[in-house]
Amino acid sequence: MNTFNKGYKFFIDNLERDYGINLSENYLKNINLEIEKFEKELSNFEGFKTPNKQLKGDIAEFWHSNTFNINAALKDSRNRAYTDRSHEFASPDIKGNFGKDFGLKYYRNGEEGVKAQSLSIFQKFSEYKAKGGKENIEEFLKNRNLSNNDNILNDPIYKGQIRVIPREQLEEAIKWLKRKINEESSKRSEQFFRYQETLKLLDDRLRDGKGVESIPLSTEEALKLSELSKLGNVDLKNFGINIEDLMKYEYIIQQGFRAGLSSAIIKMVLEVTPKLYSVIEYLIKTGEIDKEELKKNGFATLLSGAKGFLYGSLSASLIISCKSGIYGNVLKTIDSSVIGAISVILLNTIKNSYKVSKGEMNNRELVNELIREMFISSCSLIGGGITQGVIEIPILGFMLGSFMGAVLGTFIYETSYNAIISYCIDSGFAFFGLVEQNYELSKEILQEIGIKVFEYEKFSYNKFEHKKFKFKKFSYNKFEYNKIKIKILRRGVIGVNKIGYVE
Do the Cβ atoms of 311 and 263 come closer than 8 Å? Predict the structure, then answer.
């Protein structure tokens, strides 16, 4: 097998590690970007003179949209919420890219907040007139893109929007709405709908209906955030907004499963492609399909897929666990590629240790494989890091560089290894015990020079043979000169990291 093929095989064997590293880094990067974005938006309020009681509503909008987005990043969802600073009539405070709009009201208590959330169009028009508005009802509706009919006047101005209020006010607001629904259903049935619709859409957080949601915020917390934002002294860690507190094992398992599944599929495709080519080539030449070869390759591909899933999921899970701070701040400083490489090398070492216990590999072969894997892994990861900065396509850039690094690392290792072995052959150097210098003569050489070699007894049985008739043949003796046989032994490789006498 040439150097390129060895490098390619190493890349395929460690593909799940590279995919796990890249997926984990992108996952953690997205979470941290959302947290940084939240901090930046709150810092924009530094120096504001607006009273906290008024500012808390604006702060709540940024809180809910950003904590929703952080939760979406944690759950690897593409759904996002955006704060809409529009001042148009009844415009939503927050819009989602998943088909939902949200209106927030952070008032003094639950009753005041839910009254504002259930305000009808006619009530809004009455407020407008009380403040000196000059438009009549037709002009008021037309200028706000509302249809001019009698039925619409009793509709809530925030119709269709999710009504979000402070966490501690939700229970009080629900009780008030239920009481109003009971009252209006018997007195003014036309008012019934706006209270019922408000109750149906009332919540203390943003939700997308698929598990992603914002963190509920109380009035007291909104006031505190307002004060800190104006001072430019917001530390979101004090409000539980940091990756260490937000990360859960269920998210880690989810990402590990995703990395493992993707690694298994990619690995199976790359494994089966050259084998499928061989099957097609055989079919073209013979007109038949080699069923045994097909079956053998099929099982081999399934096993490689299983290995890819195990290694990929473990690599991704360990990286996210360490880099998110679940295992402490010390492990957060370790590079993702190092964690991924260690996890794969550890699994391979366990596998090779099992082979040693079964006698399929000796200790020197185990050490040699470990050194080889560590060196080529380092070259592979360095190559991936370099190309990722040049080719900014996620995963593809890293994996391309990893492949190039694996081939280059294999070439360097093979060249260096051959040079070291040649030096050890010539000098007798054991290279700190990694190379075994064996000075025993092999059994074949001992037998050739006439030395009897002890062997364990072997059971042999007589074979029955029929008597055969043979004609007598005249034979003559040949005269041969006596010869002296001389064979020069030299030092050479007789095993992995093992040097001895060869002919």
Answer: yes
User: Are 121 and 127 a contacting pair, CB within 8 Å?
Assistant: no
Q: How far apart are CA 359 and CA 382, in angstroms?
A: 35
Reported as a pLDDT band with limits 50, 70 and 90, residue 424 is low
- Look up residue 236 and give its two tokens: 């979101």
Checking if the pLDDT of 466 tops 70, the result is no
Mean pLDDT over all residues of the chain? 81
Asked whether 198 and 136 are in contact (CB, 8 A), the reply is no
Residue 208, pLDDT score: 94
Query: b/e string for 282-305 if b means 16 or more Cβ within 10 A?
Result: eeeeeeeeeeeeeeebeeebeebb
In 3-state terms, what secondary structure has residue 436? Answer: strand
The owner of tokens 């075994």 is 436
Local structure of residue 209 (DSSP, 8 states): S
Residue 388 near residue 398, CB atoms below 8 Å: yes
* Contact of 195 with 181, CB cutoff 8 Å: yes
Strand 498-502 to 490-495 pairing: antiparallel
pLDDT in tens, 127-171: 888 889 888 888 888 888 887 776 788 889 999 999 999 999 999
**Residue predicted with more confidence, 148 or 104:** 104
Distance CA 170, CA 16 (A): 47
Q: Which helix (H) or strand (E) holds 263?
A: helix 249-286
- The DSSP element (H or E) to which 495 belongs, if any, is strand 490-495
**What's residue 145's pLDDT?**
84
Task: Answer with the residue of higher pLDDT: 393 or 407.
Answer: 407
Q: How far apart are CA 487 and CA 322, in angstroms?
A: 61
Q: Which two tokens stand for residue 283?
A: 């079919």
Residue 324: CB atoms within 10 A of its CB come to 25
What is this structure's pTM? 0.73
Of 452, 410, 441, 417, nearest to 503 by C-alpha is 441
Taking the C-alpha atoms of residue 27 and residue 76, their distance in angstroms, rounded to an integer, is: 7
